[in-house]
Specification:
The protein contains 3 helices and 5 strands. It has 110 residues and is of the alpha+beta class. β1 and β2 form a beta hairpin. It is globular, with a radius of gyration of 16 Å.
Length: 110
């Protein structure tokens, strides 16, 4: 676990603002957030579905800044009315085109 934390600290120091680091878990990325309103740069976890090449399918996914946010989203995803709502929205929307594929990058083993 210490090696993981060291890699994350290094990414926080050397990564560019809004840089996205792939992990060994498909759809889970580490995102470097820039300094904002007096707060220093921070890392966050981004959940973003991936294509066949392991690249994110959306420009920006669901960003989790701390464990409390993860717990809150878990509760939201378990709501019974969410699934039928998403299915209805999907049916109402026009068909969607697939996005671009980008070559591989460094992967953070977690």
């Amino acid at each position: 676990m210490e090696a993981l934390e060291e890699k994350l600290k290094s990414f926080l120091k050397t990564g560019a603002d809004w840089a996205r680091l792939k992990t060994s878990v498909p759809g889970v990325f580490v995102l470097k957030l820039p300094p904002f309103r007096g707060n220093p740069a921070r890392l966050a976890v981004e959940l973003n579905p991936t294509d066949d090449a392991g690249n994110p399918t959306r420009r920006r996914g669901l960003i989790l800044r701390n464990f409390e946010e993860l717990e809150q989203y878990k509760q939201l995803f378990q709501m019974d009315k969410l699934e039928p709502l998403v299915k209805s929205v999907e049916t109402a929307n026009p068909a969607e085109k697939r996005k671009f594929v980008k070559p591989g990058e460094d992967v953070l083993e977690i």
